[in-house]
Structures are given as structure tokens and as C-alpha cells.
Design brief:
single chain, alpha+beta, Mannose-Binding Protein A, Chain A, 4-stranded antiparallel sheet, 17 strands, disordered C terminus, binds calcium ion, C-type_lectin-like/link_sf
Length: about 325
């Protein structure tokens, strides 16, 4: 069931304290889960796995860890998609990565080439390369692939192959791979695109990756065995790549929504503040509990510099006294994610 947490800030006038503008927090779940399980858990119970790419995020992470005396590493929402074949978006089962393994970091999308020694290397998809298309003739190895010695980026090569043949080449075993290497050798060419691509690193909540703001532990990501597909963070927010199927504690992000409500209370003279507050809170609770979704809420009153909640306003006909006073939250702006 969808659970929303709404923090109601009742403002009559004046300025909200910055603390009431804390629109999200991180929660550490200590029960170890695999990365996909952790993602499902956070999305169900909270908002998502956490995104950690600012000092503010790292401070929240530390706060969440300290809250439960945690000092180890835990999953965060950073992950890599699996390599997919261009033809029918199938997940890679056969691979021939060289010693460097696919290790491109700071790119939106990575694409694979086959070298003339038969090893695969990941490259930036926008670079120019010759390429192998896959034809519709699947009987003989010699007819399966079409090699074109024309430099194109991976996307253009894909478009070309899809319109003139079937798609960019899918390589399914050593025999096919050796054949492609042989073609490159016979033409004395170095490498060529095959139909393999992936999105290297992305955030679970779809935040765009800010490479200058993410921080890895030294020596990470090391992509051990080419299988480091999900990231953990230590309590300082330094990241490392791990195999997604290992079980780790994890950090969830909980979004909070602040809704400001302004009341005007009409009174002859003396106002019993606490009685009015109680009456308003009672009414708010009635409204909030009558919603279709479960809403966890806090009602916070904004205390003014004079120690009072309510401010006296002169009432004059036609005077526009509903205009909002700028608040600290307004300055912070609406929540981005
Ligand atoms: Ca690692």
C-alpha cells in the first residue's frame, strides 16, 4: 500500500525554521538483502534506494548509520544494467571480454567492439568504427555476418544494419567470434562494432549521474571478474562496486512532503492560543485520516520571534492579507526528486 508521509507546517506568518524544510531522510535497513531485493523493499516501504552524490547526501548517510551505530558498508541506489544485444534486446550469455574487462565509467552508454585477436573491448558509442551487421542468412557462417569498412558511430551503424540487414551482429559462440576476428585480420583492420551495448552506471531513482560529485573508495570501482554491477557506500559515503546478488544491509530514502496551511482566526479581543491550536489540529487529523491512502503526518506550528503562534492583523475592508510571506522553504525551492 502506498504510504505518504506528510509534514504539515501550519504557518500564520513569519519564517519557517530551516529544520522544518528537511524534505527527505535516509534510513539504514540492517537486514541483509541482495541489491534487487533491497530496491524492491525501499520502493515498497519508503521511496527508493538512496542517491549519494553531494555532501548533503553523505551527511544524511552518516546520520542514518550513526542512528543505529552502524560502521560497515551497505547498498545504495547506484547500479549498472546488463549488456544487451541490439537484436531483440537479449541479455548477454556468451562473452569474450579481454583483460581490461568492460570498464568505461563516465559515459551515458557504452558499446562493444571485437578486436582482431577476438577479444571484446567496451568503447564510447559515439566513436567511429567499422562494423559487423547480422544478415538473415543463418545457414552458413560465411553468410551470417556482413562486414562494412565504413566508419560510423555505434548508433548510425545500428540504424544502417537494421535498415539494410537484420541488426548489428550478435555473437553467440567461439566459432562465430573467431570468424569475425579472422575477417578483421584478413582486412588488416584493428576492431569493429558488434551489437552489444549497456548503460554503465545509473541511479535507481533516475537522478542524472553527476560524475564530479560521486566519490569512490580508492581503487574502486575495480569491476572484479567483470561482475561489479551494484554499489555500496561506507558510512562516509565512499562507494565500491560489488556483485548484486551478495546480501548487504542497505539505505532507503524517505521523501517527506511539506504542506503549508495558513489560517486566519477571527477573534474579538483575547485569543486562547492553545484552545485554537487544539481545535485546528483536531480538524486536520480528521481530514488526514479520511484519505484513501495511509498518511503518516506531523503537525508543526511555527513559533514567531515574539514567542507566539498567532500574529495579530489589522482587518480592513479590501485589504489583501492572504499574500504569503517568503519562507526558508520557499528559498530552498521545491524538492527535485
Ligand atoms: Ca569492487
Amino acid at each position: 500500500m502506498m504510504q505518504n508521509k506528510i509534514q504539515l507546517v501550519v504557518v500564520l506568518a513569519g519564517i519557517l525554521s530551516k529544520a522544518s524544510c528537511d524534505l527527505y531522510r535516509f534510513v539504514l535497513i540492517e537486514e541483509p538483502k541482495t541489491w534487487p531485493e533491497a530496491q524492491s523493499y525501499c520502493r515498497e516501504k519508503y521511496t527508493d534506494l538512496v542517491t549519494v552524490q553531494s555532501d548533503a547526501d553523505r551527511a544524511k548517510l552518516k546520520e542514518a548509520a550513526n542512528a543505529v551505530n552502524f560502521s560497515s558498508v551497505a547498498w545504495i541506489g547506484f547500479y549498472k544494467d546488463p549488456w544487451l544485444w541490439s537484436y531483440q534486446n537479449t541479455i548477454i550469455s556468451y562473452a569474450k571480454w579481454g583483460n581490461q574487462k568492460p570498464d568505461l565509467l563516465k559515459t551515458h552508454k557504452a558499446c562493444a567492439t571485437v578486436k582482431r585477436n577476438g577479444q571484446w573491448v567496451d568503447a564510447n558509442c559515439t566513436e567511429g568504427r567499422y562494423y559487423f551487421c547480422q544478415t538473415d542468412k543463418q545457414d552458413k557462417l560465411q553468410d551470417k555476418f556482413k562486414y562494412t569498412e565504413k566508419t560510423m558511430n555505434w548508433y548510425d551503424a545500428q540504424t544502417y544494419c537494421r535498415s539494410h540487414e537484420i541488426d548489428l551482429a550478435t555473437v553467440t559462440d567461439d566459432t562465430e567470434n573467431a570468424f569475425l576476428a579472422e575477417v578483421l585480420n584478413s582486412k588488416n583492420d584493428w576492431d569493429a562494432w558488434i551489437g552489444l551495448s549497456r548503460i554503465p552506471w545509473q541511479w535507481s531513482d533516475n537522478s542524472s549521474v553527476s560524475w564530479s560529485s560521486v566519490k569512490w573508495e580508492s581503487g574502486q570501482p575495480d569491476n572484479v571478474n567483470g561482475t561489479g554491477e551494484c554499489a555500496t557506500a561506507d558510512t562516509d559515503g565512499l562507494m565500491a562496486d560489488h556483485i548484486c546478488s551478495t546480501q548487504q544491509p542497505f539505505y532507503c530514502r524517505e521523501n517527506r512532503k511539506i504542506q503549508r496551511v495558513r489560517f486566519t482566526v477571527k477573534s474579538d479581543r483575547s485569543l486562547d492560543e492553545s484552545a485554537v491550536m487544539k481545535a485546528i489540529e483536531k480538524k486536520m487529523k480528521q481530514i488526514l485520516s479520511g484519505q484513501d491512502v495511509i498518511i503518516r503526518y506531523n503537525i508543526t506550528w511555527s513559533v514567531q520571534p515574539d514567542g507566539k503562534i498567532f500574529q495579530q492583523q489589522e482587518t480592513r475592508e479590501n485589504k489583501d492579507n492572504t499574500q504569503d510571506t517568503p519562507t526558508a522553504c520557499d528559498e530552498l525551492g521545491p524538492m527535485k526528486r
